[in-house]
Structure formats: C-alpha cells, structure tokens
Amino acid sequence: MFAGVALAQTNVGGPDTSGPTLTAGQFNLIYNFFSFAIAAMGASAIFFFLARSSVAPKYRIALLISGVVVTIAAYHYVRIFNSFEAAYALNAAGVYAPTSVPFNDAYRYVDWLLTVPLLLVEAVAVLALARNVANSLILRLAVAATLMIVLGYPGEISTNTGTRFLWGTLSTIPFLYILYILWVELARATERQSAEVKVLVRNLRLLLLLSWGVYPIAYILPMLGIVGSSAVVGVQVGYTIADVLAKPLFGLLIYAIAVAKTRDDGGLVNDVNAAGAPLAVNASD
Ligand SMILES: *C/C=C(C)/C=C/C=C(C)/C=C/C1=C(C)CCCC1(C)C
C-alpha cells in the first residue's frame, strides 16, 4: 500500500504522460525547433556522405560516421516530432492540452545511446592516431558514454526532484570523465599538427564543451524551479539546440579538420575514379 503510494508519487507523469498545457506560442516554438532539427540532420547527412571523396582515404571513416550519426538523429527527430504532435491538441480555449497519447521522450535517450559513442569515435577517427591508442580511447569513451546515458534516464523520466538529482549526479561522473579524456587527449594529439589544424581542433574541443554542457543544464531546469509548460519548452528546445550543435555543426568541424589534414598530408587529386582506387598524391601541394 505504502509502496503503491510512493510509486504513484515518483511516477507522476511517468515518461511525460500528463504534461502541462502549452500556449499556442510554446507549442509552435517546440514544433518549429523539431522541424528545424529534422532539416539540419537530414541535409547534413547528405553533405557528409557526399563530401567523403574530398578528403584523404584515412579520414573518410570519420565523415562516414558523421553521416550515420545525423541520419540516426534525423530519424529520431521525425519520431519525436510525430509523438509531440500526437501528444497535444488545440482546444476551444486556443491552448494545446495534452491528449491521452503520451509524449515519448525515450526516443532521445535511444538516439543518444547510439549517437554519443559514434560521435566520440568520429572525433578520434579524424585524428588518425596510432591504432592501439585509438582503440583504447574508443573503448574508454564508449563505455563512459553508455554509462552516462543509462544513468541519466531514470532521472529524466522522474518528476521527483530527489530521484532526478541522484541519477543526474551519477550520470555526471562518466560525463566529466569523457570531457577530461577528450580535453587531454585532443590537446596531446594536436601537438605535432599544423597551426590551422591546431586551431580547428581547439574549436572542436570548445564546441564539444559548449554543446555537451547544454544537456545537463536542460536536465536540471525542472530542479531549478522551472516547472510546468516552461520546463517542457526549456528541456525540449535546449536539447534540440544542443543536438544541432553537437551533431551537424560538430560534423562540419570534423570535415574541416579532415580537409586541412588532407592538405597537410600532401593533398589529393580530387578526381576520384568510380572504382574508388587509391588517390594520387598532389606533390605540388
Ligand atoms: C547527440 C547527442 C549528444 C551529444 C548527447 C549528449 C548528452 C549528454 C552529454 C548528457 C548528459 C547528462 C548529464 C551529464 C547529467 C544528466 C543526464 C544527462 C544524460 C542529460
């Protein structure tokens, strides 16, 4: 009986069943952000797949992974968008009230579970480090990324501040570990690079810090007294902005690094034959 009461309390709303009413402006803001994310993810997927031939073969895997990441994200944003549309209905009062269909926030976490480890692989891949160094980095980063997301989820779906705080804190431990590893290793990896690559990698690290830092901030909004419809808007818009920075924009920086490193490595004759045979090296570059 007590357990039942406790469960009912901590699970109010569950994965967002009975959300608050949204004004037309709030609904449209979220709606347009989701729509923008679908366009950004979809268009950048096309770009990353097609841009592979403009970088040296050893950097192509990084662009391929960038393309896969934004493709996965585009798919999930379509699902999130549809779920959001079904979860609210315009009523006679001109506001959007929750329907009986819950807004499915789990799509985000499933998306992150796939894309976050891949984003880390992408960053390591473009550096073209020695194989053993790269493998060890990828393993540590992928395990930490998975832990970060799995630990964050129970807090995300809880409306209980204590529960949210506990899982959020646990999730922050692997998060800090990832940032530390990337900060130290990305810096070390650029020591021998050209000035241009150094600046680009520095920008990549800053973008990573800036965009990844938005997620825990959006997560704690409901704990900072921002509740009801403002919390829904803050969390959804916050995560969407962060996703566009962390995936398409991050991918573009990866592309810029691959182009700069291709040039530093001696360039490439951009005339790839259809069979994808090894490219000739442009000695004059
Ligand atoms: C493309 C998606 C990306 C890069 C997602 C990144 C997500 C995070 C960095 C999430 C971090 C969290 C915490 C550090 C604590 C609270 C729970 C999370 C999962 C929101």
UniProtKB/TrEMBL annotation:
The chain crosses the membrane at residues 29-49, 61-78, 112-130, 137-153, 165-186, 206-227, 239-260. The record marks E122 as: Primary proton donor. Its main location: membrane. Pfam families: Bac_rhodopsin. The record marks L119 as: Responsible for spectral tuning. The modification N6-(retinylidene)lysine is found at K247. The record marks D111 as: Primary proton acceptor. Gene3D superfamilies: Rhodopsin 7-helix transmembrane proteins (1.20.1070.10). One of its GO terms (molecular function) is light-activated monoatomic ion channel activity. Keywords: Chromophore, Membrane, Photoreceptor protein, Receptor, Retinal protein, Sensory transduction, Transmembrane, Transmembrane helix. One of its GO terms (biological process) is phototransduction. The keyword DNA-binding does not apply. SMART domains: Bac_rhodopsin. InterPro entries: Arc/bac/fun_rhodopsins (IPR001425), Proteorhodopsin (IPR017402), Rhodopsin_retinal_BS (IPR018229). It is a multi-pass membrane protein. GO terms for cellular component: membrane. Contains one covalently linked retinal chromophore. It comes from the Bacteria. It is found in: Membrane. Coiled coil: none annotated. PANTHER family: BACTERIORHODOPSIN _OPSIN, NOPA (EUROFUNG), PTHR28286. Belongs to the archaeal/bacterial/fungal opsin family. This is Xanthorhodopsin. It comes from Deinococcus puniceus. The lineage of its organism: Bacteria, Thermotogati, Deinococcota, Deinococci, Deinococcales.
